[in-house]
Amino acid sequence: MDAVPVDTDADTRTDTSSGGQATTADDGAAACPHLRKYSLTPPESRPLDEPDYFGELRQECPASTVTLGESGSSWLFTAFEDVKTILADTRFSSSPLTPGFPLEGAPGSDAPVAVTTMIRSDPPVHTRLRRMVAKDFMPKAVEGYRDFVCATIDARIDSLATLPQPIDLIESFALAVPSDVISKILGVPVEDEAMFQELTERMTTLSLTREEQYQVIGEFAAFCDRLISLKESEPADDLLTRLTHEQLLTGELTREQLAGFVIMLVSAGHDTTAGMFGLSVLTLLQHPDQLELLRSGARSWDSAVEELVRIHTVVRMGPRRAATEDIEVGGTLVRKGEGVIASILAANHDESQFGPSRFADFSIPEEKPKHLGFGFGPHQCVGQNLARLELGYGLPRLFERYPDLRLVDDDITRLRFREGRAFFGIRELRVHL
Amino acid sequence: MTTDLKAATTMNLTIDVAKCCGSGQCVMAAPDVFDQDDDGVAFLLDQTPPDTERANVDEAIASCPTGAITVVDG
Ligand code: HEM
Ligand code: SF4
Q1: Which of A204, A205, A203, A180 is nearest to A193 (CA)?
Q2: Is the pLDDT of residue B4 over 60?
Q3: Residues of chain B by 3-state class (helix, strand, coil), percent to 5
Q4: CA distances (Å), A36 to each of A26, A28, A32, in order?
Q5: pLDDT of the residue at A9
Q6: Regarding beta strands A36-37 and A430-432, do their DSSP bridges make them parallel or antiparallel, or are they unpaired?
Q7: Residues in CB range of B14: below 8 A, 6 or more apart
Q8: In chain B, whose CA is at the least distance from the CA of A369?
Q9: Closest approach of chain A CAs to the CA of B10, in angstroms?
């Protein structure tokens, strides 16, 4: 096995490249002795950690090739600097329509509603779409949401005490908070909130068949359409009213595009934030010494949140990109039309950059880690400031309000994870208050 | 050595608005130097901030996801 990264600086790849085509598994095999099937399955005894081969690849082959699904293959980058470089470089396209885009194993990315949204588009279209909402999630705006976000979280936390114990924190808290918050920002009427959350849950389930996917997208779009009509006739001080009046009624967005916009915002923020709530509570309950450091003020909740986002990196399938020209990354030549997985999970566990990354070794650093958990480059999470507010307020409040919070089952190998979802998260977290 | 902070500056900043994606990371790092307009696009509150802002500005540049901020030392 190569002890050093494959050096493709010169022309070692020239004879194996298919020039302008997506790499095939055969090309990859010739180029990379570490070829394997892409998998995110963690080690059995350490279900919260990255797969072991990520660590091996970072050491031996940070630009390797993986096979995906039946026939596809892709580059897999695992080193922090390389991943950051790729995400910052707009010559790597986010659109599943770009030749070579590694779609397999990332179901839903090419759903019709997804391909026209900002998360799947490139500049200049991306720039135009992002500017429609960037101001609604910028630090100043999020500061303006603080009061209602805190009140919403307090209400959810209080209501936990009324539930029969033990309670499932995922259902009653982790999934509820992000949905409450985004529905208030968008301006979903209170009486529609339950339906909104139910639709969001189904919307973000990837294991649906194609027909079921179309079905739920259709239902969500109809729901949005009704909401848009409401905002036309009864404008209020909320995001959907603003988008309706500034983008829809001016012809910048069609009605369908606006519905797609809403669906994307909701899908991108729901499971991610919910996943982080569940994983964070679990992590802190399993590391009482760290919780004590937070309680005594020896460590800040700000640092804890960043460290939790780093080690858990709930966006694990990618991000994925396709090269629109020949691009060198850390001495490796990626050819036009080749697919790339820029693994932020692997990058966030890069030992040259960060301290211990295993769940068992969780320890809150003094300084906030500069991780890639919210991505990097122009697509860096638009909701990151909001997510930080939700987690940074919700977690300390929960532990303050219920100082005796404890897990029903301490054995992490018995945890059940959300399956068929785009993002990493725990399915059920039973606790006593 | 002057006591006028304004004079004690060696930084001259520019923002490439075409690159800016409105992430607001610069505002988080150096709120006295950066702000965001109605499209979320960053602009400079102070193009030549005092050297006391150096650490914050360095942090803003390092955390800017699009490389939109540049500093010309003068
Ligand atoms: C802890 C919670 C969250 C995490 C870990 C997270 C992570 C990420 C990551 C890694 C990306 C980059 C994807 C790529 O480069 O292809 C992203 C993009 C995005 N996120 Fe988040 N996110 C979180 C919460 C939210 C929230 C609350 C919202 C809701 C407003 C949101 C909305 C978005 C949107 C709209 C994009 C696409 C941005 C673009 O393409 O320009 N996210 N997120
Ligand atoms: S950090 Fe960079 S991309 Fe984000 S708002 Fe500031 S200049 Fe724009």
Answers
A1: A180
A2: no
A3: 25, 20, 55
A4: 12, 9, 9
A5: 29
A6: unpaired
A7: B44, B47, B69, B70, B72
A8: B63
A9: 26
Distance of alpha carbon A28 from alpha carbon A334, whole angstroms: 12
Quick: pLDDT tens for A102-152.
987 665 556 666 667 889 999 999 999 999 999 999 999 999 999 999 999
Place of tokens 């301006």: A187
A42-70: average pLDDT: 90
Q: What is the reported pTM?
A: 0.89
* Token code pair at residue A375: 């991505």
A63-68 and A36-37 beta bridge pairing? parallel
**Of chain A residues 136-175, which have a CB less than 8 A from chain B?**
137-140
Answer for the pair B41, A131: CB distance below 8 angstroms, yes or no: yes
| C-alpha to C-alpha distance for B64 and B29, rounded to whole angstroms | 10
Q: Where are the domains of chain B?
A: 11-73
* Ligand 2, atom 8, residue with closest C-alpha: B20
Q: ipTM value, please give it.
A: 0.87
Tens-place pLDDT, residues A378-417? 999 999 999 999 999 999 999 999 999 999 988 888 888 8
Q: Which CATH class is domain A25-432?
A: mainly alpha
CATH of B11-73, one of 3.40.50.880, 3.40.640.10, 3.40.190.10, 3.30.70.20: 3.30.70.20
Residues with CB under 6 A from ligand 1: A 87, 94, 118-119, 130, 137, 264-265, 268-269, 272-273, 276, 309, 314-315, 319, 344, 373-375, 379, 381-383, 386-387
Closest CA to A384 of B15, B48, B21, B54: B21
Q: Quick check: A420 contacting B, CB < 8 Å?
A: no
